[in-house]
C-alpha cells in the first residue's frame, strides 16, 4: 500500500451555469481539506485534473486551486491531462508523489465545465480525444467514434441492443440513489431499448440513452502515506495502480478488444495479488454503453463476445456477483471530463467506508476502478481497500 485517501468532497454533477471552473475548484478543495481534518498549509502538493480542450477560455488553471485558501500560496501545483482519464491521471500522479516521499499530503482536484459551451462546439472539443488525422471527420463527433465501435461489435457478435439497453437502465436505476448524479431517474429497460422521439439514434446503433451526459462538476480528495493515514479519522488505501497507454489511432488496434484495459486490469490485480472475484464492486468507464459491455470482457468477467451475459443474467446488478457502477456510472452521474476519475475514487472510498447511503454495496471490502481516456487509449485501474 503506497498511499491512502483520508478526505474527499464531491459536488452534484449537472448544469451549473451559475458556477465557474474556479468556483467549483474552490468549493471542493475547501471541503476536501476540511473533511481530511488537516489545515490548508499542511498540503505539500496540488494536482488539478482539467481536460478543457476549449470548454474554458481560462486554459492555465493549476493555480486556481490556490484561490481556496491563502495558505496554499507557493505550493507546487500542476495541471494533469489525459483525455477522459484526466481525473485518474491526477490521482495516480498524487499517489506517486506520496510513495516517493516528496509529499506527506497531496490535494487532488478534478473539474470541468461543459454545458456553457454551444452544442456543436461540445462535439468538436470532445473529438479532440480521438486521432483527428484519421477520425476527425467521423459524423456525430465522439459518439460517432463509439457508434463505429458498436457497429463493428454488432457485425462480429450479433445485435447487442438488449444488452446495451440493460446497461443503460441498470445504471440509471442505480443513479436514483446517488445524490451527486445529474440524472436521478429510473428510465426502465423498455424506454432505453426502444427508439423514440425522446430516445433517437445518435450514431450507429447507439441511442441517446447509450451516451453519457454533458456535465459540469468537480470532486477532490486528499492523499497521504499509510502510516500517517492510520492516525486519521478514515483511510482508504490503494492496493494497486496500473496505467497502460495504447496507440491513439484506432486503425493500429483491434478496437473490439480494449487491450489497454485488459492489460491494466491484469497488472493491477496481479500487483494486488487478487482475482476479479475478490472485488466487491467496480466503477467502470461507461462513456457509452458499448464501452461498458466491452469492458466486461476486458476485465475478465466474460470471454470475448459474451459481455452481454454479464448484464442480461444480472451479474452486474447491485445484488449480482460483481456490481458494476453502483454510482450510476457516467451514464446517470454525468461526465464532466476532468472530474470523472476523481469522482470515481471518491465514490469508491465512500463505498469502502460504508458511507455511500442509498447506493451502498453490502459488505463492500475491495473496490476496483477503471477510467478510460479516448477509445481505450489511456487506461487507468485502481484497486482500493479501507484501512480503518
UniProtKB/TrEMBL annotation:
Occurrences of domain Thiolase N-terminal (ranges): 6-224
InterPro entries linked: Thiolase, Thiolase-like, Thiolase_C_2, Thiolase_N
CDD domains: SCP-x_thiolase
Superkingdom field: Bacteria
Residue ranges constituting the Thiolase C-terminal domain according to the UniProt record: 251-385
Protein name according to UniProt: Acetyl-CoA acetyltransferase
Record organism: Roseibium algicola
